[in-house]
């Protein structure tokens, strides 16, 4: 009797467990499916950009260096000793301004000697002409032979030539005397003088006395790959690009700032550099404040053509396969994700320039690309760039400062309640 009483509670517990297990196994499968459907996550929300075709300027960024618009190495054209320098180094000089003064005594003496020789030749010519006039009267009466008269006419002609030569010598001496004052051939910024007073200089020497550079306007010499230029010309000939009538050039300086004045392309070299495989392009920029100096490194952005019916797509919306093929994800008419292969033609700012693979009205996924996959159902909303949302959040800075204080207060109250 005692053993039966001890086993009765154990049997009752086993019977209850078996009943619960049978009830669980006999549950309807439809109820399980309904419960799973109720727990299913809603469609992933993505930000989409509706593609709209537009004409996009195709530009290329190339490195280059600035060069002076005009450069003149000032050299002496006559020999002499420098008496004094007539300009301040580094100052702006004008065309024809005196730069150096040479000792002109030797050149002045040469000029006086040439003038004296001219007077001598003119006197000889006058004497021969008087004699020729007399012979002309005597030859008619046969008092002088015809041969003597002809010889005298020849002497007069020689004397006239000698007078002309003497006049040329006088002009040459005057020019040399004028070279005793060395003048600036152009207007521009002067450099450092290589000589001082007392230095002996010679005509047409190799070393310049000073260099004058015209800095307004100023050149920017740019190097472009010949392969890129060839591809551009082929696209223009095929009609896929429209030629830009006014080639504008923008400049970014060494410190990252943008030069405020736009330039224009002056010319393109007609030959390719065999060592670098590049072509030199030259742009002209106005430089009124002399902010650009020769030799500065700069990056030029050149607008070379216009791409018709292109699309500007943010860079985060486009990925590339290991083979380099550009792809993007779209939301089709069924609300599902679709992968599309596209073709790009460079960038403009933070956007890719898409030329093939898209059509007007396509919904390109920009926000949430990493959260979706091919064929997945999604919920599309218009894409809002972060730059547009940032100002709205910072309109009330006092409220933003108050939020941490309120959060700390709530945490303190919650901690006090839990301790109680």
Question: What would you note in describing this structure?
Answer:
With 420 residues, the protein is an alpha+beta fold. The chain has helices spanning 2-25, 29-38, 105-140, 146-178, 226-238, 386-393, 397-419, and strands at residues 44-50, 54-74, 80-85, 92-93, 98-102, 181-183, 188-190, 200-201, 210-225, 242-243, 248-252, 263-268, 278-285, 297-314, 318-320, 326-331, 337-348, 351-356, 363-367, 378-382. The strands form two sheets. It has a six-stranded antiparallel barrel. Strands 6-5-3-8 form a four-stranded antiparallel β-sheet, with no helix packed on it. Helix 3 packs antiparallel against helix 4. The radius of gyration is 47 Å and the shape is elongated. The model is unreliable at 1-8, 16-27, 388-407 and 412-420 (pLDDT under 50).
Describe, in short, the structure shown.
35% of the residues lie in helices and 34% in strands. The protein is built from seven helices and 20 strands.
Structural topology:
Elements: H1 2-25, H2 29-38, E1 44-50, E2 54-74, E3 80-85, E4 92-93, E5 98-102, H3 105-140, H4 146-178, E6 181-183, E7 188-190, E8 200-201, E9 210-225, H5 226-238, E10 242-243, E11 248-252, E12 263-268, E13 278-285, E14 297-314, E15 318-320, E16 326-331, E17 337-348, E18 351-356, E19 363-367, E20 378-382, H6 386-393, H7 397-419
Parallel strand pairs: 1-20
Antiparallel strand pairs: 1-19, 2-9, 2-14, 3-5, 3-8, 4-7, 5-6, 7-9, 9-13, 10-14, 11-12, 11-14, 12-13, 14-18, 15-16, 16-17, 16-19, 17-18
Helix pairs in contact: 3-4
């Amino acid at each position: 009797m005692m053993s039966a009483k001890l086993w009765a509670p154990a049997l009752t517990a086993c019977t209850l467990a078996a009943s619960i297990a049978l009830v669980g196994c006999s549950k309807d499968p439809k109820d399980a499916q309904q419960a799973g459907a109720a727990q299913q996550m809603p469609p992933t929300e993505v930000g989409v950009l509706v593609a709209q075709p537009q004409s996009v300027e195709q530009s290329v960024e190339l490195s280059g260096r600035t060069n002076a618009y005009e450069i003149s190495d000032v050299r002496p054209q006559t020999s002499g000793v420098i008496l004094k320098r007539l300009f301040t180094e580094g100052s702006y000089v004008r065309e024809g301004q005196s730069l150096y003064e040479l000792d002109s005594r030797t050149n002045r003496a040469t000029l006086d000697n040439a003038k004296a020789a001219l007077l001598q030749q003119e006197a000889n010519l006058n004497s021969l002409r008087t004699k020729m006039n007399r012979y002309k009267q005597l030859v008619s009466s046969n008092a002088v032979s015809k041969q003597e008269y002809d010889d005298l006419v020849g002497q007069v002609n020689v004397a006239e030539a000698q007078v002309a030569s003497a006049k040329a010598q006088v002009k040459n001496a005057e020019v040399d005397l004028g070279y005793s004052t060395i003048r600036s051939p152009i207007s521009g910024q002067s450099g450092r003088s290589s000589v001082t007073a007392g230095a002996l200089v010679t005509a047409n020497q190799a070393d310049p006395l000073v260099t004058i550079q015209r800095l307004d306007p100023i050149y920017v010499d740019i190097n472009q790959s010949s392969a890129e230029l060839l591809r551009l010309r082929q696209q223009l000939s095929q009609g896929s690009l429209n030629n830009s009538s006014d080639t504008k050039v923008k400049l970014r300086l060494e410190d990252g700032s943008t030069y405020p004045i736009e330039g224009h392309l002056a010319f393109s070299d007609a030959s390719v550099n065999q060592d670098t495989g590049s072509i030199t392009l030259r742009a002209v920029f106005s430089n009124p404040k002399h902010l650009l100096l020769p030799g500065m490194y700069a990056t030029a952005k050149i607008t070379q053509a216009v791409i018709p019916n292109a699309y500007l797509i943010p860079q985060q919306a486009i990925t590339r396969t290991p083979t380099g093929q550009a792809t993007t994800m779209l939301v089709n008419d069924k609300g599902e994700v679709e992968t599309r292969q596209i073709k790009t033609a460079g960038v403009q700012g933070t956007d890719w320039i898409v030329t093939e693979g898209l059509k007007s009205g396509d919904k390109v996924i920009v926000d949430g690309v990493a959260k979706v996959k091919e064929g997945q159902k999604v919920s599309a909303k218009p894409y809002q760039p972060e730059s547009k949302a940032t100002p709205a959040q910072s309109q009330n800075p006092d409220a933003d400062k108050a939020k941490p204080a309120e959060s700390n207060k709530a945490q303190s109250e919650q901690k006090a309640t839990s301790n109680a």
